[in-house]
Design a protein that fits this description.
alpha+beta, Pnp Oxidase, Chain A, about 30% helix
Length: about 130
């Protein structure tokens, strides 16, 4: 399994937002959607504020692959569902820390049980990273 480089983790993990596009069955990418991303040690995570019914989240369940753009980087990724009380608490804390300047109601939309159920770990699929800047 591929691992993120320190440079990728730093650039993507500190980016305010991430563009995510999942792969369709025919191999084409869906339109990208802007979401929040957090870093937890050497992993990157995203969540759907609309939980498992969110359109972009449902798209990730088709082929479990796609592409992200953040921090001036573009990367093909695999979407791995991540669950469990301990990891979810750590991801909640990462969201609260990174996005602390937003209203509590906004933060609560990404740390509630519905959003937690739609937690995805982003895993790089190739060693090549494109720069988008």
């Amino acid at each position: 399994m591929m691992a993120w480089t320190i440079n990728e983790l730093n650039k993507i993990g500190t980016a305010e937002e991430l563009q995510i596009a999942s792969l369709r069955r025919d191999g084409t990418l869906r339109n990208p959607v802007t979401i929040w991303v957090v870093r937890l040690e050497d992993d990157l995570y995203v969540r759907s504020v609309n939980g498992r019914t969110g359109t972009w989240f449902r798209g990730t369940q088709t082929c479990h692959e796609g592409r992200i753009q953040a921090g001036g980087l573009e990367k093909d990724v695999t979407f791995v569902e991540e669950t469990g009380p301990e990891i979810n608490e750590q991801i909640d804390a990462a969201y609260r820390t990174k996005y602390h300047r937003y209203a509590a109601s906004i933060i609560n939309s990404i740390v509630n049980p519905g959003a937690r159920s739609a937690t995805i770990k982003l895993v790089p699929r190739s060693a090549n990273t494109s720069s988008t800047s």
